[in-house]
Amino acid sequence: MRRFIAVPMHLNAHDPAWIAPLVSERLAAFSPAGNPFFEHAEVAFWIASRGDRDVGRISAQIDRLAPQNPDRPTGHFGLIAGEDDPEVFEGLFATAENWLKARGCTRALGPFNLSVNEEVGLLVDGFETPPMVLMGHDQPYVGRRIEAQGYGKAKDVYAYLCQMSDDIPAHILRRVRRGPAAGVTLRMLDMSRYDAEVSAMTEVLNDAWSGNWGFTPTTEAETAQLGKSLRAVIEPKMIWFAEIDGETAGFVVLLPNVNEAIADLNGRLLPFGWAKLLWRLKVARVKSVRIPLMGVKRKFADTLRGQMLPFQLMDAGATQARALGYQTYELSWILEDNAPMNRICASLGGKIYKTYRIYQKDLA
User: Fold this and answer.
1) Cis upstream peptide for 73 (omega within 30°)
2) For the segment 294-304, what is each residue's pLDDT rounded down to a tens digit?
3) Low-confidence residues of the chain, pLDDT below 50?
4) pTM, whole model, 2 decimals?
5) What is the rounded CA–CA span in Å between residue 158 and residue 124?
6) Taking CA 69 as the corner, what is the angle to CA 67 and CA 71, rounded to the nearest 5 degrees?
7) Residue 302, number of CB atoms within 10 A of its CB
8) Half-sphere exposure of 307 (CA within 13 A, CB side)
9) DSSP, residue by residue, 320-345
10) Cis bond upstream, residue 254 (ω within 30)
11) pLDDT value at position 28?
12) Does the first or last residue of the chain, that is N or C, have fewer Cβ atoms within 10 Å of its Cβ?
């Protein structure tokens, strides 16, 4: 598995925008002991080698919680990386596709690394800037090599870059600053009830995102594991909940961009990496954040009180982030046809600066 993790680290070593992941974190993410995804999925990993060199890698997975059309059983591929060589990609995809077909799949979809609720899509635009935390980075040739294997676009997802100095539109800001409507309460994350707060996020997330393309419910175990892994690096002042009449109705998470802090660690936390990481996050502070999670329960989303929640939550989180010295933030991933979220991102001054593509192929 360490060889598997190292493949893209070798392939991308020349790229100034590449940030090596923490090996310890990747080992946990790709292990049944560290990732609850394996409780409801079957996963296989392969390395392509030429002589004594590892030249590529791929995964294939079947998620039992993912939406399925019985007439078109779908499996996923992910974690794709390889030298710019058609033979490497042909071998990788033939191997993964044969594994999926042997398990009854007639369509392949991906890349998902490993699930639709983790890293999604292949970078097809925005190669010149480093990825933010929990985002992928790929070389420009990879998309062409995947398409050469018969894959076509299924869906694009966007990453928007926003400046903390850009505020929400003035007419909306005036409404936000008048304060919440009757029955609406905004509050920060309560670290003394951390597990319960993570559980509340899971409930909102699964409800709010249930109508999205490719929606797969996040299990409480998966959310709890993510919460556990991020507990040391989150900033409670930048995680906000909204309640309507005492019921949790929505939330937003602004996550410090850990990638900015680990860029020079070369994937290693020992012997001094943890000290450097926490010092940079808690003392020196990185300058960027990512918003990976935001949602409002569907029963509130179309009400007058619910329609204001995304802006109220964003204003609360951004106000704290500005006070802490953060300068930019990323909103991602946003489905290309999610019109409400794309409008919100544009209204916040966001510009699409990265595009990730999900590919599909019918398997003969």
Assistant:
1) no
2) 999 999 999 99
3) none
4) 0.94
5) 10
6) 160
7) 9
8) 7
9) HHHHTT--EEEEEEEETT-HHHHHHH
10) no
11) 93
12) C
